[in-house]
Target: Peptidase S1 domain-containing protein
Amino acid sequence: MRLTFGAIGLFCLVGLVQSHPFYEVANPDQIVKSIPAVASEFPYTTLLKLNGSLCGGSLIGSSHVLTAAHCLYDHAVSEVSSFNVIVNMLSVGGGGNGAVIRGVKNFIVHPNYNPNTQDNDVALLVLNSPITNIEPVVLPADTRDSSVRAQ
Model:
């Protein structure tokens, strides 16, 4: 009996952590206590359409998007021709005034990414052409010479 409940629990857990295709994404109007973003409030936020899967990222340079390695781990570099990055959008659909769409020409997953522990869960997308009309996110300054240290 315990084995049966354990197996059912395992299947439920796997079902919860599985990524979902674009058409299965939850309705953003159903997010509890959400506050809609104002147009251009977070222009550097990106929607990544990765051959049927969705992920998020941040524009960190005119041709580079920072994202999570788990978004790209199961994809081959040969798939990049089907990847799209949408910047400065207000909906999961990617539309909106001022939205910019770019293709991807390459991606780099952290060489020490561990899918079991999620250690080093970071990756970089290289866009096929630069985005020059949207400012990238402002990254924190180098803290090596300051009294502020990460623990």
